Amino acid sequence: MGHPEMMDRNGFWKDTRSRGLLMVTLRGKFKGEDNLRWHLVPIVDVTSSGIQVRKWMRRLLFIRCHVDGVEEGPLFVNEAGKQARLSDYNSDFQMFITQARARERHPKVFSSKVEVEDYNLRRSLRRGSTTQAHNNGVLASTIELNNRWRKKEAAKGAELGLAMRQVYTQALSALDTTLRYSRSL
């Protein structure tokens, strides 16, 4: 599973600002592969529902760089300073769902028919964003392109790891299509 990295945040951050998007950099060992790999996920600065992705990423990076004093490496770390796992945040995620339900501003977002414990960061966010994109009319081919890294994960040693600049160039070549996904959220 890939994890968000702070690699070259200034280069890609500046390059993508004028395009109205940012590149989320993932690095990790994917299933069936022996080497670390890079994967870039282009995301619009602001989604159609008003989520200000760049603003929140900027705040997160500010905390990691200026408060924690970290310039490179994993974006999310545990108390020991090691790369965090998604499961490290599940209890917080479930607490936020409970709070969102209590406020009842958006009762359809987190159905009361589903137990809070059934929500999980590993699958709930992907399923939710895929469903939202589909409901907003995003073509199935675009959704599949956005979720391509899942297929690569399962492809057992498909392609060799590329240099970061090559991965970035590949991500740019499909930019218009992949941005339809995050724009629809």
From TrEMBL:
- This protein's superkingdom? Eukaryota
* Name of the protein described by the UniProt record: Uncharacterized protein
Q: Which organism is it from?
A: Skeletonema marinoi
